[in-house]
Design a protein that fits this description.
Helix content is about 35%, strand content about 15%. By secondary structure, it is an alpha/beta fold. The structure holds nicotinamide-adenine-dinucleotide (NAD) and 4-hydroxy-L-threonine-5-monophosphate. Keywords: Cobalt, Cytoplasm, Magnesium, Metal-binding, NAD, NADP, Oxidoreductase, Pyridoxine biosynthesis, Zinc.
C-alpha cells in the first residue's frame, strides 16, 4: 500500500494557492503527508513551514510545519496580480512534481490552481491547462478530466476548447476512449464493481428525434449501442437538463457530458466545496481542487480550503488504493 507523500505543486503565486497550502497542512497534518513544491517566501507571513531536500523527509516534517521542497521563483508574490516572471517557475513546479511521482519518490500529484493566461503570457505555455500538459509529460494520447464529489461525478468529453469547436472535436473515437477510460477508472480506482455511465446528448432534448440536431442519431446513439454490446452499462444519449436532479443522479456513477460547462456547472453548483478534479488515464494519480486562482479574493483571508483538502485526501486514497 503506497504511503509516499503527495507532491503538491504551488500553482499561480498571485492566486489563493499560497494561502491554501498552510491551511492544508493544518487540516491534514495528522491524516496524511504531502509537500509543497514552490517558493516559501510566497507563503503568508508567519506560516509554519519546514524546508526539505527530498520527499522522504516530508512525513517527519509534517509534525513541525508545512514541508516545502524549495523552488525559488525570484520575485515576490503580489496577491491578485500575476507576475510574468513567475510563469517559468509555476511550470517547473508541475514538471518537478511529475518527475517525483514517476520516480516513485511521491505517491501522487496534487496541483494548486494555475492561471492559464498568465502562463501563456509569461512563458508561452502551449497547453490549455494542467490536463493537457500532464498528458504531454506522461506521453499519453488520451486522458479524461473527471470532477468528483460525494454528490456527483462528471466527465466533459471535450475540455478547454471554444464552444463553436465542440461538434467538430467530438468524434466516435474520442468519445469511445473517454467512456472506456472512465469505466476502467471507476472500476479499478474507485472500486465500483459494475460502473453505470450516463451520457448526455449534445443538443437540447438530446436532439428531439433529430429535429434539434443530428449527432445523437447519426453517431452518438449507435456508438453507445456498440459499447453496450461490449458489456459497458451506458444510458443515453439523455437530455442533459434532466440528468442532474437527485433521482436522476441515483441512477448512475458518472455522467459523461459533451463539453466543459455542460459537466462543470452541475457539480460546481451542487458541491463546489467538495468537488475534486481528477485526471484519469495518466500513469500516476493526479488531483486538483475544482476552483481556480480566485484573484478577486487573493490576499484577503477569504479562501475556502475545502476543495483542496478533498483533492489531497483523494490523491492520498487513490495512491493507497482505497478511493471510493
Ligand atoms: N485547477 C486549476 O488549475 C484551475 C481550476 C479552475 C480554474 N482555473 C483557472 O483559474 C483562473 C480563474 O478562473 P475563474 O475565475 O473562472 O474561477 P475561480 O474558481 O478562480 O473563481 C471563480 C469564483 O469563485 C471564487 N472562489 C474560487 N475558489 C474559491 C475558494 N477556494 N474559496 C472562496 N472562493 C473561491 C472566486 O473568488 C471567484 O469569485 C483561470 O485562469 C482558470 O483557467 C484553474
Ligand atoms: N476545467 C477545470 C475547472 O474548471 O475546474 C480547470 O480549468 C482545471 O483544468 P486543468 O486541471 O486542466 O488545469
Amino acid at each position: 500500500m503506497n504511503t509516499k507523500p503527495v507532491a503538491l505543486t504551488c500553482g499561480e503565486p498571485a492566486g489563493i494557492g499560497p494561502e491554501l497550502a498552510p491551511m492544508l497542512w493544518d487540516a491534514l497534518k495528522d491524516e496524511l503527508s504531502f509537500f509543497l513544491i514552490g517558493d516559501a517566501s510566497h507563503l503568508p507571513e508567519g506560516s509554519p513551514y519546514v524546508e526539505i531536500s527530498a520527499p522522504w523527509e516530508a512525513p517527519a516534517a509534517m509534525a513541525q510545519g508545512l514541508p516545502v521542497l524549495p523552488l525559488p521563483m525570484g520575485a515576490p508574490r503580489v496577491a491578485g496580480i500575476p507576475n510574468p516572471a513567475h510563469a517559468a517557475g509555476v511550470i517547473a513546479s508541475i514538471e518537478r512534481g511529475v518527475a517525483l511521482v514517476k520516480s516513485g519518490e511521491a505517491g501522487a500529484l496534487c496541483t494548486l490552481p494555475i492561471h492559464k493566461k498568465a502562463l501563456k503570457d509569461g512563458a508561452s505555455f502551449a497547453f490549455p491547462g494542467h490536463t493537457e500538459f500532464l498528458a504531454h509529460l506522461a506521453g499519453v494520447e488520451h486522458v479524461v478530466m473527471m470532477l468528483a464529489s460525494p454528490a456527483l461525478r462528471v466527465v466533459p468529453a471535450t475540455i478547454h476548447i471554444a464552444l463553436a469547436d465542440v461538434p467538430k472535436a467530438l468524434t466516435p473515437h474520442s468519445l469511445r476512449r473517454t467512456l472506456e477510460i472512465t469505466n476502467a477508472a471507476l472500476s479499478s480506482q474507485f472500486h465500483i464493481a459494475a460502473p453505470r455511465l450516463a451520457v448526455a446528448g449534445l443538443n437540447p432534448h438530446a436532439g428531439e428525434g433529430g429535429t434539434m440536431g443530428p449527432e445523437e442519431i447519426t453517431w452518438i446513439a449507435p456508438l453507445l449501442e456498440e459499447l453496450r454490446r461490449t458489456g459497458l452499462d451506458i444510458a443515453g444519449p439523455l437530455p442533459a437538463d434532466t440528468m442532474f436532479h437527485a433521482a436522476a443522479r441515483a441512477r448512475y456513477d458518472a455522467a459523461i457530458c459533451m463539453y466543459h460547462d455542460q459537466a462543470l456547472i452541475p457539480i460546481k453548483t451542487l458541491d463546489f466545496d467538495r468537488g475534486v478534479n481528477v485526471t484519469l488515464g495518466l500513469p500516476f494519480v493526479r488531483t486538483s481542487p475544482d476552483h481556480g486562482t480566485a484573484f478577486d479574493i487573493a490576499g484577503q483571508g477569504l479562501a475556502n480550503p475545502s476543495s483542496s483538502i478533498e483533492a489531497l485526501r483523494l490523491a492520498w486514497a487513490m495512491a493507497k488504493g482505497t478511493a471510493t
